[in-house]
Amino acid sequence: MKDRFLQFFRKVYHLKDKIAFFPTIISLAGCAFAYIMMYAENQGISKYLIEFFPQLVINNTETARNILTTFIGGLISIMVFSFSMVMILLNQASSNFSPRLLPGLISNRKHQIILGIYIATILYCIFILVFIEPSGNKYQLPGFSVLWSIIFMVFSLGSFIYFIHSISQEIQIEFIMKRISSTAHKKLQNLLDLEKDKEFNFPDTSNWIEFKSKETGYFQDVSIKLLKEISLHNDCRLEIVSHKGTLCYKGEVLFKIEKELDEKNTDKIYKAFDFSNDEFIEDNYLIAFKHLKEIALKAMSPGINDPGTAMNAIDYLHELFKLRIIKQEKDFIFEEEECIILLHIVAFEDLIYKVMASLRTYCKHDVIVVKKMLLFLKDLKTYTSKEDKIEIINKEIENLLVDARIAITNKTDLQKLQDI
Question: What total number of domains does the chain contain?
């Protein structure tokens, strides 16, 4: 039962990032409220309010119909415009920045909620319009329900104004980079807090029982809560061999277990792994390094030629690397000061090499951008006292200078870089 619930929860977790998830939920809520109001009208709520609060009730059939039809037509136009703006945002982000940014933009919850408010209001107005019957002596117009449609319309107009404000920010690359950086910064800081004042002792796992991947896919996340539960219940430790965010091929070692478990428990461990093509920084902070790097590369391409954006992306990478350099090279999960789960992560050396190799290839001809990268690497050395990491940074500085000497021919520019 718990396994089924976990699978259901994981499906819902991925659905919430789809552009249609929240609009569907809010639309159903609008339909449900329309039926509630129909029931209240059948109980005579409008007739009661006319006697005591006549100002709250619209009691003219033609006026009510005109209001509802106007609202429906107007909201459809607003919704089409808003959806067009979202498509423009996605197209611009894909062409000018990086197509990998699209999942994060599509999963913007604010825009999904606003779209849901539009659809819910349209559906509510349609249901109330259908509920209006031809006038008769014993018929009471659902005037109070029409009043609610006016309230929803005012709320929808307010949402539209907020949407224009929000979309004007979302389309700015500076806002996108800041959102990427802040999300990854928060994730990294949480991991550093978990490592604080902890001793990392984990036994040799070379003789542990290996379990291989049953499918080929991108390993994006794993349920730590479920793994802890299995580990504590069976009094065994686990090692997650595959790196989050990497392509895991079928037949590769996925995880190791300290001792043999029954098939039921091993199936639970397999179900804890999440394979998906969508990349979300909330699941893996390394995605932020990839996105910021690709934004800088796109900005330095001949078609875009925007060194300012590239330097801003390097600044955000600088902030993230300041946290990553002081982080341990592996993730450990503790229970009462005892390490029970080991997770392998991309090493600092591999991470900074992948970022710098791409940046120096596309930016080596621009002396200002190269200077920015040199200052970034020089400052990064002040955040660690470990000789091995300082040596890694020195190696990247030398690689950058080698490429710069080939691409930059001006002696004055080269001397300024050497002085740094």
Answer: 1
